[in-house]
Automatic annotation (TrEMBL):
Gene3D superfamilies for the chain: Guanylate Kinase phosphate binding domain, P-loop containing nucleotide triphosphate hydrolases
Gene Ontology cellular component terms for the protein in this record: cytosol
Protein name per Swiss-Prot or TrEMBL: Guanylate kinase
SUPFAM superfamilies the record matches: P-loop containing nucleoside triphosphate hydrolases (SSF52540)
Domain of life of the source: Bacteria
Main EC class the enzyme belongs to: transferase
One Pfam entry name: Guanylate_kin
Localization per record: Cytoplasm
Reaction catalyzed: GMP + ATP = GDP + ADP
Family, similarity comment: Belongs to the guanylate kinase family.
Amino acid sequence: MLIILSGPSGVGKGTVREELFKDESLNLAYSISMTTRKPRPAEKDGIDYFFVEEDEFKKKIDEDKLLEWAQFVGNYYGTPKDYVDQLLDEGKNVVLEIEVQGALQVMKKCPYATTIFIVPPSMEELERRIRGRRTEDEEIVQQRLAKARKEIATKGEYKYVVENDDILEAKDKIAKIIREHHVDQG
Ligand SMILES: Nc1nc2c(ncn2[C@@H]2O[C@H](COP(=O)(O)OP(=O)(O)O)[C@@H](O)[C@H]2O)c(=O)[nH]1
Ligand SMILES: Nc1ncnc2c1ncn2[C@@H]1O[C@H](COP(=O)(O)OP(=O)(O)O)[C@@H](O)[C@H]1O
């Protein structure tokens, strides 16, 4: 089963996901995306993302190897199709942590997907988190915050909206959604 996790940059998607993956009973697998963004200091190729150059990314688009793809603040991001299919064949609940344009593409192709949008308690808190992470320079932070406002405006497209105020509470809410839709049925 497919689970789409979206939300603005810095809202805590990665942090909440890490908590979710500690719960083995959820039977989750993470779909590793491909991106042209440069790796952050702690990120590893093949774990956080497959980091590629733009020409390689465009080749994947041409070869129809991506389930979805989008441009986000100057970089390309996409979901390799084969890997997702392999994980689904293994019976996993596959988590796509992707932005809104990509999520809309997957919703069309897979209307049964469980779609979750994570919102911050406030825009001020979102700004604190994105700055606190210290991974982007000022210009990019500004662009990501502007993007965040537009993204939050699309939250109605998702089946569930979960606020990430307390990390563990957000994790519990999402785990409950997944359990109700996937684990208990199967
Ligand atoms: N459409 C799409 N978006 C992705 C993919 N992988 C990551 N993203 C999204 O791209 C945006 C930027 O990701 P990133 O640069 O890692 O920043 P972060 O979300 O602040 O950690 C986030 O909204 C991610 O969820 C993908 O394969 N496809
Ligand atoms: N509930 C929370 N309360 C306070 N800080 C949080 C919370 N969730 C995440 N953070 C912090 O916010 C920053 C951005 O989180 P991250 O998981 O990288 O976001 P995303 O993956 O959505 O871009 C990180 O420094 C993280 O530790």
